[in-house]
Amino acid sequence: QVQLVESGGGLVQAGGSLRLSCAASGNIFSINAMGWYRQAPGKQRELVAGITSGGSTNYADSVKGRFTISRDNAKNTVYLQMNTLKPEDTGVYYCNAPVGVGEARYDYWGQGTQVTVSS
Questions:
Q1: Biggest alpha carbon distance in the chain?
Q2: Residue 19 to residue 4: CA distance in whole angstroms
Q3: Which of 5, 34, 38, 100 has the fewest CB atoms within 10 Å distance of its CB?
Q4: pLDDT in tens, 26-57
Q5: Where does the pLDDT of residue 87 fall: very low under 50, low under 70, confident under 90, or very high at 90 and above?
Q6: The dihedral of CA 61, 58, 99, 9: what is its sign?
Q7: Of the candidates 53, 48, 94, 54, which has an alpha carbon nearest to the alpha carbon of residue 67?
Q8: Is 58 exposed, middle or buried, given 0-12, 13-18 or 19+ CB atoms closer than 10 A?
Q9: Which of 95, 99, 96 is nearest to 31 (CA)?
Q10: What was the pLDDT predicted at 31?
Q11: Exposure pattern of 86-101 as b/e (b: 16+ CB <10 Å)?
């Protein structure tokens, strides 16, 4: 079992910044990559950024150059630094930790944290 607890969401004006944190606990040794997803009202959940245990990162095109994902392995925590926020970044942000691969993959999710960007 893996538990993920997010924090750091809130209300910010366009152009502002927020930093999200995701603390992992439990069977953390089963975790390789971690990521952040978001879900806007009426839309599907989408990948925002991911990071492997080795530190390789990937980003959605819509956030490249504005968001940075990082991890502190000593603290079992993943961060998402969000700069130059836009109203379209509004949504619930979820931390994700997949374990296993292929048909054996299982995804752990945090409870979500609301990010609202006002224009």
A1: 43
A2: 16
A3: 100
A4: 888 778 899 999 999 899 999 999 999 889 99
A5: very high
A6: negative
A7: 48
A8: middle
A9: 99
A10: 82
A11: eeebbbbbbbbbbbee
| Residue at token pair 């999200």 | 20
User: pLDDT per residue over 15-34, tens digit each?
Assistant: 999 999 999 998 887 788 99
List the single range of 5-14, 28-37, 81-90 with lowest mean pLDDT.
28-37
Written as one letter, the residue type at 2 is: V
DSSP letter (8 states) at residue 82: E
Residue 27, pLDDT score: 83
DSSP string, 1-66: -EEEEEE--EEEETT--EEEEEEEEESGGG---EEEEEE-TTS--EEEEEE-TT--EEE-TTTTTT
